[in-house]
Amino acid sequence: MDRLFRDAQIPTTLITSKQIPDFSGRIPVATKDMIVTAISQMSRLSNAFRYVDFEVDIARQDTVQNLTTLLLNSNQIQLQRPALYVSGAVAFVDQNVINNRFDVGTSASRLETGYSRDKNATIIGMELHLGDFRTRTLIPGLDSANEVIIGTGGQGLDLAGRISDYGWQFNVGRNYTQGSGAAMRTLIELAMIELAGKWARVPYWQCLTLDQTHPGFQRQLRDWYDEGDANVHQTLVKKSLTGSGYLTAQTAQLPINHPTVRSALARYQVDQGMVASGELNFATYERALRNYVMLGENGQFIRVGWSPDSSRPPVPTVFDGQVTAAPMGPPLGTETGPLELDLQIENLAADKTVFEQGTQIFLSATVSRNAHLYCYMEQAQGAVMRLLPNPTNSSSQVSANQAVRIPDWMVPNPGFVLDAGGLGEESVMCLTSDTDLQAKLPAGLQTPGLRPITGFVGLQSIREAYRTAAGNQGVTEQTLKWRVVPRRAAATAAAR
Predict the structure, then answer these.
(1) Cα 389 to the chain's mean position, in Å?
(2) 3-state secondary structure 258-306
(3) The model scores a pTM over 0.85
(4) Per-residue pLDDT reduced to its tens digit, 209-240
(5) Phi-psi region for residue 190, left (φ > 0), alpha (ψ -120 to 50) or beta?
(6) Which residues of the chain have pLDDT under 50?
């Protein structure tokens, strides 16, 4: 789901959850925390969801919650309003819905035997819904109802006998019980995949290894196609064609009506037994979205297609029972095809080109294969410094398709904080290459990171130095810019 969200370019959405009660009192598990874990696992690369952690129940408040309340009251912290919330409950727990018992025994003058076997089944049902936080209304159709069966059983063997005046007795038994905690985690993960998939309008059923040709899924996919954004449809189909080898990374950037893209669509349609129109219609969209995730012969999930490296045929990636990060792949420098870089601003803001002075800025950089990454920042006054590598993170090597956070806001000590500084325009440039270029750079660029660089003016001089060091190998680069404006509170005070 995480990679599916990332391929579909789902924007970040704030989400929270109510307490999920169990009215039966038989399933004492931390359901809400399981929801947080499921949301976090689905957003590790895509950043599709962020959980707003705020507790209003006084009995459940802790040190963090108390400090949050104090800072909110003194206007020292801002709590962003979530867009969605999860609501629901453990609907029912039916015990012993199936009870099979079998007993048999024999009796003789000197030997008695007995054998018993029993099996029981308990069904747990859970209902979860997505609601609009602003209106506190549950969104029609964004619901999930699932059940899971917990089995218990046992076997026993009794032997008793007599030798002359002495007797002996022997008992053997084996009992097993499937845990309710693991069953609840399964229900939570199934429900969150379904709810998040319906909200994002992506084929979530593939991550549950369900057949996409089911009429219910076909109707849902058709509704999404008719009501959804055409740009999202085009992006998903292009990624699928790129992963299948019909498009390259360069031609995938062309418009959908470009002759090259239309020709690729027509070839794909012919290979799939469809009418070769060269146009993006629902049949092509539905077929291109199939088999994002499949179930292998050994029972493990296999991710196929949609690979960022289109220079070679897609190789299935096997995961240990779930869809997780792809393996490291071949050694650095052995891959072919273009090296791609995706640099993004991760701030939850409608306009990511303008920031108030003092605002913390969060970036992420992702490379299409194992490579070396270097990032530089140019301040409004013209000073340039290297963000990555730095004394805290001295290695330039990064893994394929792993988002590198700049700075790493997920660790207690990120090493540095990136704030919108002086008024004017600021820029961050990242460069990536298959080999380490650090030793080939001029002496002025080999100083430790997070310090002003002397002898170089602006990012253009840095870019030229890297191109010279890379030579024929080349270097991939991307630059992000934003404008720093005065803080509204400061501007209001100055106007007074």
Answers:
(1) 25
(2) CHHHHHHHHHHHHHCCCCCCCCCCHHHHHHHCCCCEEECCCCCEEECCC
(3) no
(4) 666 677 777 787 888 788 777 887 888 888 88
(5) alpha
(6) 304-305, 307-334, 490-496
